[in-house]
Amino acid sequence: MDTNLIWQSLPQLFSGLMITIQITGISLVIGLLLAVPVALMRVSKSKILWMPSYAFMFYFRGTPLLVQIFLVYYGSGQFQEILSDMGLWVFFREAYFCAVLTFILNTAAYTAEILRGAIQAVPFGEIEAGLSCGMSKATLYRRIILPKAFRLAWPAYTNEVIFLLQATSLISIITLMDITGVARFVAAQTFAFYELFLTAAVFYLILVYGLLFVFKKIEYRLSAHLRAGES
Amino acid sequence: MELFDLNGYGWLLWKGVRLTLLVGMGAMGVAMVLGLISSWGKLSSSRLALGFANTYTTVVRGVPELVMILLVYYGVPTLIQDLSASFGYSVTINLDPFTAGVVTLGFIYGAFSTEVFRGALLAVPKGQIEAARAVGMGKILAFRRIIFPQMWRFALPGIGNVWMVLIKATSLISIIQLPELMRNADIASRATQKPFTFFIIASFFYLGITIISNLIQKKAENWADRGVRRI
């Protein structure tokens, strides 16, 4: 094993790490913001509201992420003229933009499904109590249902975050230089395949279990009221 | 319609679907066997078996599938070559993409099946096992006749989920040039300059596989639940 080579490529791998964290972070934040309205539409009784959100979730959860990335990145090329006319081509020609856009839509679909389950799991007594205090529907959602749903959804959301973090490795296929991208690039130049991919794997392992640790801490704090009796 | 004219590449996609299913099923077989073995390790009283099973699931769940595939396909042959060279032998190994795909995906999803089987084995009522032992069955016989058949009822929903994720992950094998659905869609889209058309159709094929798998899963769950009294 060529340890010298691993040592030399560490700075590049760290800049790859930054890209991985950046893309994961941006996609998670915007994806979560998008997931809330999608989940609210999904639990609505109105057909005009729940049907589009159901179709959106079904498509993005039922197809491979790689197809979605290719569809946005390469597929947009088929509509180059239309997109240029609309002034959007400057975005779609960038691999970075296409990757983030796909991840946002993908994580929004998965997160919305998690939130849907959580919203429907809010005990009816709590909703009834809110209603009997005279809360409007908006207040009810803001004060009772959504806070409770987020708490219920947290463990499942943790899994989604880990899933997305690992999924960002796919952007190396569309030429972006994240951890995997750097590893592939250096490995192809030096033929040091297992050294680089093993190092990349270690990077991900540390990232994943570090993140899990943080999320468990937050989960512990979120459930503080359930441990009130303990000393 | 011009957008959905496949220029005679429909058959290539169809061949891809067949190979996708083949890789998926092969990997699922490997995953189930590995899952059963390592779930036994997780529940075993042997420290060594427990350690192996825990390391396996911890490592696999922390590393992205893509990195794992690259590691197996490019890394393992070079690793073996380097190792054998240091002992003075010269060995050349060429993994074909199909074997690499089946083995890697099977190895990854074996870790996920482990948790499913572990839960299912624990869910079989203790009384059943005690009764089997009381009538004089040996450990293996009790497993084969009592635990194994009853375990499926608890394992099927989880195994169904593993399959859904696995079949979507087969798209990653396309980057090591196995001509499955994703790879063939890529080839067709390059030849015809219609990437959107081919990737959206490929995504519909995946969606179709998901829908059919869902139906089969429902049937299988009904079959496994046939011994349960319903109101």
Task: Describe the 3D structure.
- The complex is a heterodimer of chains A (231) and B (231).
- By secondary structure, chain A is an all-alpha fold.
- Chain A has a single domain (8-224), classed as MetI-like fold, CATH 1.10.3720.
- Helix content of chain A is 80%, strand content 0%.
- Chain A is flat and about 70 Å long.
- In chain A, 39% of the residues are buried.
- Chain B has 231 residues and is mainly α.
- Chain B has a domain at 26-179: MetI-like fold.
- In chain B, α1 runs antiparallel to α2, α5 (126-134) runs antiparallel to α6 (139-169) and α7 packs antiparallel against α8 (195-224).
Percent of residues in β-strands of chain B: under 5%
Radius of gyration of chain A: 21 Å
CATH domain topology of one domain in chain B: MetI-like fold
> What is the assembly state of the chains in this entry?
heterodimer
What is CATH's topology name of chain A? MetI-like fold
Secondary-structure element sequence of chain B? HHHHHHHH
Number of helices of chain B: 8
Unreliable stretches covering 5 or more consecutive residues of chain A: none
Q: Give the low-confidence spans of chain B.
A: none
The CATH homology group name of chain A: MetI-like
Q: How many separate helices of chain A? A: 10
Secondary-structure class of chain A: mainly alpha
- From the coordinates shown, what is the CATH architecture of one domain in chain B? Orthogonal Bundle
Q: State the helicity of chain A in percent bands.
A: over 70%
Helix content of chain B: over 70%
Mean pLDDT of chain A: 92
